[in-house]
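Model: You mentioned two targets. I'll fold them one after the other.
Researcher: Yes, keep them separate.
Model: Target one:
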Amino acid sequence: MIKLERESCPIELTDEVKRELTQQFISGGKSVWNKDYIKDGLLKSSHYKCAYCECSVDRESKYMEVEHFHDKHTYPKEVVEWENLLPSCKRCNGNKSTFDTKANDFINPYFMNPQEHLILVNYRFYPISNAAKNTIDQLLLNDSQRLVMQRFEIAETVNTKIEELYERAMEYKENIKRTSQNRNKIVNGVENLLTEALPKASYCAIVATAIINDVHFFLIKNILINESLWSNNMQQKLDAVQENALDTNVRRTLAFLDTVSKEY
């Protein structure tokens, strides 16, 4: 999960249209939010990913659903309020269901930075706030088969790529394979790896966390700097990657849970 920036409200969703659609929902329960202009705007704002789990979704996919942060049945007057809508996969939307996000804290990535609420340890999310605890529990974000194993496989792929690049970088540094071909493979490999951790990529928070916590990646960076191969573009990408990476300090969760336990 990463911080998202909401697109401007679609010009089609005027105050008059909102009133009409809201009344249609209240009077007949019609799915008034299933408009192309609503879905397109939401998908663009989330980089065509689920706002919660970061899996890839698109308007044509049956798995893309318009999620109401404040439940539409409990708060029907917000059924088409732009700031109440999020793009979600079918799984996350179904798990969240009618959970009352006004009565209970919950992460809204458009208004909250997940980095301030979640940490990642052994491919599992852990809370450092009540909002994170409710979000993890309600969305089943630590489902072993559907999410944890997928995060593991993604991180392992990243680590493997970094190991391969590190070996190439060492061969280049030590004049074992100091060729333009090897140099280009290293530079392009680092560029591509960082791109996979940028907001447009699926599960970029997992990729970013794996990169930031891999010692060999920073050894590669040092080699490239010494060889005058580390570019401004690489640094800009790395800065963006660090913004998406999650903390891995489990002590923060222990401190949070200890505080919670003392409240009861």
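Model: Target two:
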Amino acid sequence: MLRFLLLEKAISFNFFLITIIAFWFFFDPNTLQAQDSTYYVDYKQQVTGRLYTSRKYTSLVVNDNLNDYRWRFEPNSTLNLGVGATYNDFTLNLALGFGFMNPDRGTGETRYLDLQAHLYPKNFVIDFFGQFYRGYYIERFNGETPGVLGSIYPNLRLNMIGGNFQYLLSGDKLSLKAAFLQSAWQKKSAGSFLIGLEAYGGWANNEGLILPTELVPLNRNFSGLGFLQVGPNAGYVHTFVFWKRFFLTGMLSANVDLGRSFLDLESGREYKWGVQPNFFARGFLGYNGPKWSLNANYVRSNVRFSKVGDFNSSFITGNYRINFIYRFAPGPKLQKYLDYVDPGRYIPALAGQKSKN
């Protein structure tokens, strides 16, 4: 039987306008103005419409260093079908997990709200995460104990909130909007280093113990864990353009975060300060034509906790999608509505020139 809760548990959307306005107060507005260059073209004043499929997830990984066990708790998140549009520097996407795309896999129900905003104004890379999940199952286990894989935790909750902010050193040569949003066209291959700052906080808890009691005794087991961390990051991104309209973009950044982690043990909550390396990877591949684009992309973030007792844990956040893009100039009737959501109407420095083909 197909689940009727798919619409409730799979509403996923991105509100980019709010974050763009917020960062207006922190950055020089002149750096946010998109302009055509010899390396890329911005499709200003055109609507970049998209139809896409995607899946978002946030997993919990727990490593028991005493027994060399490794568990991965995975949500039963849905494969979603979505529509969206970008106009100038405003993007709105809405995706739903329909029943015909998600047959029952026998791994329990997951209810979730997964908010991810990935913004690429000129010279900046900005990411926001807000993940709220309930319902997990053990998707991987490196031991040989039978009956562990597929174990369902309907009351296991995971929440994470955070952000990543980076400055693109060669923003005049490289447009990440061309790779991720397809509201621009990268004409020539280019690369750039990035530097920035990130901050994350998260926690997970269960009504009972999280790890199987037959493998981890009560005096070592726990019902909850969490962290709060902040630190600098640095990375590199490069777009390879071949046959004029095909592109391949890869981006990897790493950081060293200082933070405080905790475990809720039987004896009480135990804290530990520490420094942890994390990474953030993205990949984009596709064709970007004058009017339409077909592409695939993947975003993955790995946030590690400081070791508490015998346990190392991490949250792994991912989002992969396939996009079909079509760009068009809005007519007079549509234009009057778009004017209300155009950031350039409220932030003059964001108003750009009309696109060139």
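Researcher: Noted. Anything on target two?
Model: The first strand starts at residue 12 and ends at 15.
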